[in-house]
Design goal:
Blueprint lengths: L10 E6 L3 E6 L7 H5 L6 E4 L3 E4 L4 H20 L15 H18 L2 H13 L3 H20 L6 H13 L1 H12 L4 H12 L7 E2 L2 E2 L6 H22 L2 H64 L5 H12 L5 H4 L1 H16 L4 H15 L4 H11 L1 H22 L4 E3 L13 E3 L3 H26 L3 H7 L10 E2 L18 E2 L1
Antiparallel strand pairs: 1-2, 2-4, 3-4, 5-6, 7-8, 9-10
Helix pairs in contact: 3-15, 4-7, 5-6, 7-8, 7-9, 8-9, 8-10, 9-10, 10-11, 10-16, 13-14, 13-15, 13-16, 13-17, 14-15, 15-16, 16-17
Length: about 500
């Protein structure tokens, strides 16, 4: 991959999330998108605030350190700018992939608003915490199973400590990442957030009420760290250089800490409680309708970048209740996507490139990694994206209905989806009932997405064009465009598409 992104000299930063290698690129013109997509193991590329290579869970965690090592070795050997990038390899299915990339680029331009950029920075605070949330969530699930079965009672307290330790201090990590992401000193952000979880806070009264450790949770930590960044920046400008090392951290911790104790903790606590009450009430009284809307709208929310606003809400619910009731419903969007992709595969028996894309992306789709199917298949085709959303709506409505009937289905962590969410599923009933409801919701999403796409996902003209050759290895030329649903509802221009 390194030559195809312009070499080591063209890479300014390297990071990864659950599924993507995220690269800072100096000269975008040196990146060879189509050749990257043809590399075995690469599921797709996405251009956002960073250049993102989709590799899938597990793989990205193994590839990133090797990529970093290779970049460092190349820079040491070259001791200068990298050599020109290698020539672009021939690729299959370039037309459909190009349409997906064009849609993504258009959406990226629309997403470059101050509000959406702010949401993206908020998401960057919580994304690094997801591995710990997953690990502790699975341990908590295992501990609950042992407790219910009465097995290994001597081990249960130790597992409780392992599972709950991170959650009891998550506010500190949020404060640290917030200060780091918004240009402050990370440890000062962690220090002011630590006030929230300090046990001695129980001896303090604010607004006529006694405070409790953890009150305000991650929202309080987020607000405290944001305030700390502003206080620190003002101090850097006003405090004499000779006294900066003493006064700036002292004033930052003191002023922000007092505001946190006597204001932010109470306010954030009220907001957190309201979020919990609203989420539970929404599903308890209108679960089927709410689930239908949430499951059906989640993929468009991802396109618009608005799904990032849900991350603090998920984390707040996990902190309050031990699980988030929203994630299993939103996960149904991925199920609808998988069902739609299978229908696309069956409806296009003579289109080798699209079928190859579906085959390579389906395993990741079943595990909840939907980007390859979204940007490689359904979104460029247009109609299958809409029918995939319909599958997610019916799956979400099914899970929401059971929440309304009293069988709550939640997740103890955020990040995984699809089959990967099974170890993290938790509810107010027995684990067998909760798992069954989630599994049936996936089935509803698969089946509805499949049937909707198979029956309504293609016009006759699309089927004729996309199945226009009997040779699966030959390029397929479509004289008319796909009926793609563009983010701004503007009909796509008529152009030839090579699929």
């Amino acid at each position: 991959m390194l030559p195809l992104v312009g070499g080591a000299g063209n890479v300014t930063s390297i990071a990864h999330c659950m599924t993507r290698l995220r690269l800072g690129i100096q000269d975008r013109s040196l990146v060879q998108d189509q050749a990257l997509k043809a590399v075995p193991g690469v599921m797709g590329v996405v251009e956002d605030d960073t250049y993102q290579v989709v590799l899938g869970p597990g793989t990205v965690a193994r590839v990133t350190p090797e990529f970093e090592r290779l970049v460092e070795e190349t820079r040491r050997r070259a001791a200068g700018p990298s050599a020109p990038a290698a020539s672009t390899a021939a690729t299959s299915g370039a037309g459909l992939a190009a349409q997906g990339a064009a849609l993504k680029a258009r959406q990226r331009a629309k997403n470059a608003t101050p509000f959406k950029l702010f949401l993206r920075r908020i998401a960057d605070i919580f994304v690094p915490l997801i591995p710990a949330l997953i690990g502790c969530g699975i341990v908590a699930g295992l501990n609950g199973m042992l407790t219910n079965l009465g097995w290994a009672p001597s081990v249960v307290p130790a597992l409780t400590a392992v599972a709950a330790g991170f959650m009891s201090l998550i506010a500190v990590f949020v404060g640290y990442n917030t200060a780091k992401g918004f240009g402050g000193t990370p440890v000062l952000g962690g220090a002011v957030a630590a006030v929230i979880v300090f046990p001695g806070i129980a001896h303090i009264t604010a607004f006529g009420r006694q405070l409790s450790p953890g009150q305000g949770g991650v929202l309080g930590a987020l607000a405290a760290a944001l305030l700390a960044v502003q206080v620190e920046k003002h101090c850097r400008r006003l405090v004499p250089a000779a006294l900066d090392v003493l006064l700036t951290p002292t004033l930052t911790v003191l002023l922000t800490g007092l505001v946190t104790v006597y204001g932010l903790m109470y306010a954030a606590g009220e907001v957190s409680a309201a979020i919990g009450v609203f989420a539970n009430g929404l599903l308890a009284h209108g679960g089927a309708v709410a689930g239908f809307l949430l499951g059906g709208l989640f993929l468009p929310l991802v396109m618009l970048g608005l799904h990032q606003a849900l991350i603090p809400i998920h984390t707040t619910l996990i902190e309050q209740q031990g699980y988030t009731v929203l994630l299993p419903i939103l996960a149904m969007a991925g199920a609808g996507q998988v069902g739609a992709a299978i229908a696309v595969y069956l409806r296009l028996p003579r289109n080798g490139p699209i079928r190859a894309t579906v085959r390579s992306a389906l395993p990741a789709g079943f595990l909840g990694v939907g980007e390859p199917l979204i940007y490689g298949v359904s979104l460029p085709l247009g109609r299958p994206f809409i029918t995939a959303c319909l599958g997610g709506a019916f799956g979400g409505g099914f899970v929401g209905l059971f929440n309304q009937l009293g069988d709550t289905v939640g997740s103890t962590a955020i990040g995984p989806s699809g089959w990967a969410l099974f170890p993290l599923v938790k509810g107010n009933q027995g684990i067998g009932v909760t798992l069954a409801v989630y599994a049936l919701g996936l089935v509803v999403g698969y089946v509805t997405g499949f049937l909707a796409t198979y029956l309504f996902g293609f016009s006759r003209q699309m089927l004729t064009e996309l199945n226009a050759t009997a040779d699966d290895t030959a390029p397929l030329v479509s004289p008319a465009p796909f009926t793609a649903a563009t983010p701004d509802d503007t009909p796509p221009d008529k152009e030839s598409v090579t699929a």
